[in-house]
Write a structure and sequence with these properties.
This protein is of the alpha+beta class and 208 residues long. 40% of the residues lie in helices and 28% in strands.
Length: 208
Amino acid sequence: MEVRTNPAQEDALAQMRDVLRGDFLSLRVSAYALDEDLDAGAARVRASLVINDGEPVEIVGEGVGMIDAVFRALMARFAPEYSSLESITFSSLQVRGLIDERTSGPSAAAAKAAASIGVRNSYGTEFLFSSVSESVSRSSVAAVTAAVEYFVNSERTYLALYRALRHSESEGRADLVAKYTSKLSDMVRNTSYSKTIERLSPRAGGVG
């Protein structure tokens, strides 16, 4: 299965991996069960989430359709710890079949499916995440999981850089202050981290 983003998001992901290294969180939904009331337009998803190849943990979400429910389940799992997730919203979904015109008969139904989901940040910018697999549902779930993974790791990277910046300031390292300030500005393009910084204030019991 292939997950894609645009070049700017790929660059941001490369920075996240460079800063976090072994602390980068890899997310994957390995299975899910769907209960959907088509007349009411309501869906409930119970899914198994794998974090960094660990043991699956159960997440539950409700929404308008399966993908919205998966998105809400992931948000419920991570938003309490990563407050920047409260500033993003699920904004779009597009699914299309990649059918080879040379293929006909029963095998045509086994063609690959591409799913693209949009997530809008606090500045109104939309980020796109796409996935291609043999299953419409698998592609859709992978795309929405990749989106949440992106923003979770963005906040983790921001926090790591913020702490490094404060340490460099206390050590009087102007060269490193400039370096970390520049890297922080790259992460801020993803979304707002105002609540995250509030949690780090001494009065909040965080890092001073």
